[in-house]
Amino acid sequence: MALFSSDKKAKEKRENTGFNGQFSADSDENTHGTSTISMETTITGTIETNSVFNMEGVLNGDIKGNKLVHVGKTGQVKGNITAETVVVDGEVSGEIVADKVEIGNTGKVYATITSAVFVIQEGGLFEGRKKIKIALIKEEENKGKKEDKKIEEKPKADANGKNRKEL
């Protein structure tokens, strides 16, 4: 595959590599390109990236991503992943911290996941702990409080004729 080619077939193949159309190298959301570690490649260490990152090989270490980290069907990560969105179609052992985590139908995750949004597709496997990403929830609650109308208290008599307050 000609990753840097302007060839139409190469572009179509690049856009259909398992990102479910969410992200592509030509997207306005992704101005930093796509980084891919191919299968049959093993890396030990920490990967830091501002681009969309696709892991098809083996990593013994951490990934610190900015936007999307995708662990493909042949990908294995033995370490921690931090990103805005993490999609796992391969295997991850460690800890995942993201706004959104999605385990695909071939994904296997043995980890502690901290996220606001968590999706497991049918066939996906998750063993570990799930934590809610508190900062995002507090942000949503604050937005909700501004939009909510005040609830008025209405007095209501109980069976003995005494007033009690009801919301």
TrEMBL record:
Family annotation (InterPro entries): BacA/B (IPR007607)
Regions of compositional bias (Basic and acidic residues) in chain numbering: 1-16
Region (Disordered): 1-34, 142-167
Transmembrane stretches, start-end: none
Similarity remark: Belongs to the bactofilin family.
Record protein name field: Polymer-forming cytoskeletal protein
Organism: Leptotrichia wadei
